[in-house]
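the two lines:
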Amino acid sequence: MNFSEVFKLSGLLCKFSPDGKYLASCVQYRLVVRDVNTLQILQLYTCLDQIQHIEWSADSLFILCAMYKRGLVQVWSLEQPEWHCRIDEGSAGLVASCWSPDGRHILNTTEFHLRITVWSLCTKSVSYIKYPKACQQGITFTRDGRYMALAERRDCKDYVSVFVCSDWQLLRHFDTDTQDLAGIEWAPNGCVLAVWDTCLEYKVLLYSLDGRLLSAYCAYEWSLGIKSVAWSPSSQFLAVGSYDGKVRILNHVTWKMITDFEHPATITNPKIVVYKEAEKSPRLALGSLAFPPPRAAASPLASTESKYNVPNAIWIWDIQKLRLFVVLEQLSPVRSFQWDPQQPRLAICTGGSKVYLWSPAGCVSVQVPGEGDFQVLSLCWHLNGDSLALLSKDHFCLCFLETEAGSVQPSDSWAATGRTCA
Amino acid sequence: MGDWMTVTDPESKNISQNTSETKMSPSSLYSQQVLCSSIPLSKNVHSFFSAFCTEQNIEQSISYLDQELTTFGFPSLYEESKGKETKRELNIVAVLNCMNELLILQRKNLLAQENVETQNLKLGSDMDHLQSCYAKLKEQLETSRREMIGLQERDRQLQCKNRNLHQLLKNEKDEVQKLQNIIASRATQYNHDMKRKEREYNKLKERLHQLVMNKKDKKIAMEVLNYVGRADGKRGSWRTGKTEARNEDEMYKILLNDYEYRQKQILMENAELKKVLQQMKKEMISLLSPQKQKPRERADDGTGTVLSDVEEDAGELNRESMWDLSCETVREQLTNSIRKQWRILKSHVEKLDNQVSKVHLEGFNDEDVISRQDHEQETEKLELEIQQCKEMIKTQQQLLQQQLATACDDDTTSLLRDCYLLEEKERLKEEWSLFKEQKKNFEKERRSFTEAAIRLGLERKAFEEERASWLKQQFLNMTTFDHQNSENVKLFSAFSGSSDRDNLTVHSRPQQKKPHSVSNGSPACTSKLTKSLPASPSTSDFCQTRSCVSEHSSINVLNISPEESKPNQVGRECTNPKWSVASRPGAQEGCYSGCSVTCTNSHVEKDD
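prediction for all of em together
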């Protein structure tokens, strides 16, 4: 495992391009684009104010930099450094900005969620979408980039609008049977939309692309409900984490619960490996010794659980066997974790100077070298899974992992972000 | 009858006190007196009788006694009257007999009284015991009653508690209901409020929207150097009804694709499952068909027909090979056949279970289970072998015991035993060492003996010298010559020349003194003989016998215990000491040490 030198960074803004060739990072109002392999600076753009958000276009040709305070979005082209684009939302303000999947449209959400403006880079046309709902996850695009679902609120009722992204035509518009819709998410196959209600009520609704209600699921009543929802990469399962400390797995045929995973305080099953971070050891100590059988294709699901209101543990379940597989107990609360896009490997950071990697073979923690304390607050994987960007408050560095000869097929690794920061 | 009572001396007052009735016949008084106590009786009776009969009223007394006695069934005190006029004579014999009878009666009565008293005592103690028992039981009853009361109280309390808890539960339920109602009402209120607020919010939003958007905000704009081409390279198309329709089409196409994909997957899964099912079925058939004859023979429970059905079905299915079709009929057939087979299998398994249990119950006569039978045979064989071995061991033990019991005096058996009992030998060795020690002790003793003998010899010498001088004197004095004396002198002179030890042995046993041949007189010969140890007794030589005796006396110490156990063997053992040591049973140790000396002596005596 090798580490690059440490580069400056601000606002935890550091992103790999979708094609995996470039790495964009922000330092105050400057945007730096580097080559991933050499880490040489390829481009350096200067924005009008401190950058608060950056996003690569899907084709890795453009980067948008949002300055919410000023209601500004600046777009830069990698191919044409002299090309520039500036979008000013004016007095309407700006709270969110994102690319459409085609990489030629920018969706800006104004303050108070008054509307969403769709700016095109190809034509002068501007589209407005009224009544967007201010919620946890109000916009979702299908994987193939064809459709966008948008949560709306009109007359105290929730609606979902499905747009065709190619021409922003409204395809479907339907109301959802929710009290206060909290989030929507497309299944990876782009045919099923999961809609969940506010935390006051446990309710998951599943809609087909054409707006038909496929199923509704409610685990219990009169208690705090859903915390987070995640689709499996195969679209076969929907994991629903809720405030009762359970993760429920729904299947895609009957949309009924297959199983539920608890977060027991003590783990008695000797087959479950518990990795506990030891107090002063540089490596993670093995809490219990068990040897899980080798698996052909791993499909784990991870979630963190709050312990004393701080999420210190990561729980990984084996979806093939539908049982708890591994528990990683960290000393400090988990700040961020992300699955390797290529294989069942999980990278975790806890705000310390170490980065933790888990794979079915075991668990390692690596000290980030360099003078001073490098507190890893966030991390992101490179597309091919052989490098990892580690972000601290003011710096970032790349961590290169030894790549095996044969590249692993894209696995159906699946992390449920059941993080709680109560 | 009352007059005699006045004459009673003061001594008899206590009697009158005892007898509350003063006007009583003397006999009754007497009897009461007898019953009262035996100790004051003799005295009182005496005084009483002295008072009863006086010089004056002998006649009356006698007649009264006669009357009384006759009423009690005693013979009359008077002689048989011959005439009415004649005065009846007192029959002394009868009186005496009566008295004797009365005394016997008295004794009997006393005995009976004693018995009654003891019985009374017994009964009294019994009574006490029963009373204590009664008291105890009463106490128990009381305690149990109290316990019962306590339990009842507790029960009542618990019931009370239960009622309270029930009440509490009900209250809680009510509370829950109330709270739920509150929650529901709050929820509706909240929703209502939320809606109201949202409406307000929406109004505000609308207003803001109008304010912000309608002002023709010039700031809201996009500056772009030049518009870029679309990602797909096409030009944007106008929004028309056509595009809408196309979008719809596309959407449905996507949905269709997805459903097709899913259907394909489901079909594949189905095919897999069917394959598994088919395989299972085949295996079931193959599993069931060879065994179906037997169950048919054994129990006619209709499995046979089902089986044939199944086979037909299977044949049909195989013929038609309808695996790719998933029409309902095939499915039904398949599921039905599988169900049937499953039932058969189940019944078969159950039957097998029953058989197994039967086998367990009945024993081991099931011919089907060959391995079990083999196992049983094997175990039986092994058991037989064990039995044989045990018997062999038993016979061996018996033989050994017999040998021990019977063959003690036989040389060959002793030799055999020598071979057998090695550990006994070991023990004997130990004893041998003990014997040696004993021998040493004896030797010491003998030495002290010899020393004493030497002293004696010296004294004797002195005495002999004295005697010789005396004899000389006599010889000188007397004219006649006693032959025997001269022989004695000769003998003594001969012995005086030999070793002290030999002298001792000879002289310590005076009865051994025999008139001896002169040839033994040489001292060299005797000294040599003392060295030759186990001499055979057959040698008639005197000195050899002596030495042998002396040897035996030491050896015999070792042979005490066998001799004690078998006194009849003494002689032999003494003659062959080595053998006796070897054949000595090791059980009797330690008893010889105490009586060694005396025994030795006695044996020596016997030997001689």
